[in-house]
Amino acid sequence: xxxxxxxxxxxxxxxxxxxVPLDFGDYHPLKPITVTExxxxxxxxxxxxxxxxxxxxxxxxxxxxxVLDGTDPLSLFAAAADPVPTTATMDSTRKKRDKDDSPAVxxxxxxxxxxxxxxxARYTTTEKLSINLYMGSEKGKAATTGSAVSEKxxxxxxxxxxxxxxxxxxxxxxxxxxxxxxIEELNQSLKDAWSSDQKVKALKIVIQCSKLLSDTTVxxxxxxxxxxxxxxxxxxxxxxxxxxxxxCVDNRVSLPDNFSPExxxxxxxxxxxxxxxxxxxxxxxxxxxxxxxxILKCNKFLSKTGIxxxxxxxxxMIRGIxxxxxxxxxxxxxxxxxxxxxxQLKESLNKNFFDFLLTxxxxxxxxxxxxxxxxxxxxxxYLTLYSPAIDWILxxxxxxxxxxxxxxxxxxxxxxxxxxFLLSYRYKNDLCRL
Length: 434
Fold this sequence. Notes:
Blueprint: H1 8-15, E1 34-42, E2 50-58, H2 63-67, H3 73-81, H4 87-100, H5 113-122, E3 129-134, H6 138-143, H7 149-164, E4 168-174, H8 176-195, H9 199-211, H10 222-246, H11 266-280, H12 285-294, H13 306-317, H14 324-341, H15 346-359, H16 366-375, H17 379-384, H18 387-398, H19 403-416, H20 418-423, H21 428-433
Antiparallel strand pairs: 1-2, 3-4
Helix pairs in contact: 5-10, 7-9, 8-9, 8-10, 9-10, 9-12, 10-12, 12-14, 13-14, 14-15, 14-18, 15-18
């Protein structure tokens, strides 16, 4: 009996596993693995005919998953802690975010006009006041009749120089009511000069009024003086803005509220730049700061980033004001115009606030102390003069700010200058709750 011959090569080909091509595009190590089995059946002993059959089966389920019935406890905990937001929730969140980033303040913001009467009634004086009145010149009238443009420009430049050379009259020994009447006369003179197309005269009146904010001769009256002078500045800013806006009217179609600089024609842009150039030529810091801040909104005619670029620069300009009382009211005015034109730019408001805290120690310096001695003003009374400005700055910072930011600012202010903070009566309760 002879052993049968075997073909080992063919048997090896038959018995080895079937190769399945792997698509690496769908491959992932955590995907269920598919195992392919190959079975070999012998049909008979003689003739050795073999046939193969293949079957595929999925891998066995994860034993841990089978025990938990597919409910992963970590997944359940995460789902309970952070539920999937619904469409309504997402819409309400989006509306809240859009409201916080809105370029205009809402009705929940207390306007400056509601504080005006209270400040005027609280900060009064019986001492005599003084004021400088601008005296008009004939040059201003001649400038409007000149035929040559170059002559008109030269005359207007000479008019601006006249203000520096003392074309003004000082009125002394005024009572508080007389002082307020004179300020109202200046406000009316500003409107009359503007309506008669004497723009340079109007600018000179505003510069003159801004200079009054550097005078602290009667220091207890300074908050009321600030209210009166800034009324004139607001009037000037409104007149300039409306003037440039009227130049953008094309075919009796005015600019929309949310216009872009591309919608502004070249004539209006040139006029706007001309106003900024005139203001940049003002020599003294305080009037230059106040007049530029008054027309801050006009930056919208020039570029989309004009306001966001000017606010930090104006904030830095205030650092050059040596008197801490004058400086804090300059910061309050910048917050006023900032909230009107760009309330979403809170970075400059916060910078204003912390700059004040850094300069608070100036109150104890020799300059301030000597001034208080001369005017016979005690420190407690002097600190109350800061209250309206601090109150307004804090209101602007806290408006629609995160709760964490409100608490952080309040604690930092309390540690830095606790006595002054307590004088801002509106925030006493907030501080006590911390």
